[in-house]
Each structure stands twice: as C-alpha cells, then as structure tokens.
Amino acid sequence: MAVFETWLKSDLKKPVVPRQIGVLFSEDIGANKIGVEVTDDGQSAEITGAVTGSVIRADGVTVTVNGSSSGNKAYIILPEEAYDVVGDLSIFIREGTTTIGACTASVIRTITDSSIEPELPTAVGVSF
Asked: For a Cys staple, 55 with which of 2, 46, 63, 66, CB 3.0–4.6 Å?
C-alpha cells in the first residue's frame, strides 16, 4: 500500500512537461504512488486503455510497471527494482502508447548492507 502520493496534472491538448518530484528513499519500497489526472482541454478525460509506467534508473535500466486507472486518474506504485540504484529516475506513465504524465526524482540510499554499531558504554564502579 502506497504511503506517499504524488499527483500530476496533464491536459491532452498540451505537451507533457516532466515535473521534479523530489527525493525517494531506498527503503521506501512500495511506498510511492505516482499518479496523473488527465483532462482534455480542461474537461475530465476518461482513461480507457491499459496503464503502464516506465521507470528509467540512473544505470539506464528501464523498469516496467503495470498501473491502474479510474475515471480520469491513472497511477503506478514504484516497485522494489526502482529503488535498486542511487541516482536520478525518469518516470513516465502511459495509457496505451500515449505518455500522459512524466516526472523525475532522485533515489538516495538510507541504509547499506554493512554498518558500524556504536559500542554500548560500560558502567564503571557499579556492582550488582
């Protein structure tokens, strides 16, 4: 279930302009929902085709995501593979072959495979 939602607005009569949405944290797997509300010349436009997302990671790999739609809104939830590489992401949401939304974000690492734990202080002169 997504925790953080970002909604874009797109009008079919205007070009899609990518928006910077900020930073995504590497441990937030499945927590980011990216959606787009679609209009046609300012009027609500029904989404009837299949919704997919393409997430291009900093290493050049494209992660394809199945999306969902209801009425004039479509969205994807970023999968684990979107967070695998630190750096910039380009995110595109499509209805069929038409791009209806685009944004960019950056993934930053919040934890690594190894860590140094601080030592717990020892009680001096205390007896039990």
From this structure: 63
Domains of the chain, start order: 4-108 (2.60.40.3350)
| Helix, coil or strand: residue 58 | coil
For residues 24 and 110, give the distance between their C-alpha atoms in angstroms, rounded to a whole number: 10
Unique residue bearing structure tokens 């791009």: 99
**What would the two tokens of residue 77 be?**
């939830």
Q: What is the full per-residue pLDDT of the chain (128 aa) written as tens digits?
A: 567 889 999 999 999 999 999 898 888 888 999 999 999 999 999 999 999 999 999 999 999 999 999 999 999 999 999 999 999 999 999 999 999 999 999 999 887 666 666 776 665 555 55
Predicted TM-score (pTM) of the model is 0.82
E strands, the chain, in order = 4-11, 19-25, 32-40, 43-44, 51-56, 62-66, 68-70, 73-77, 87-95, 98-108
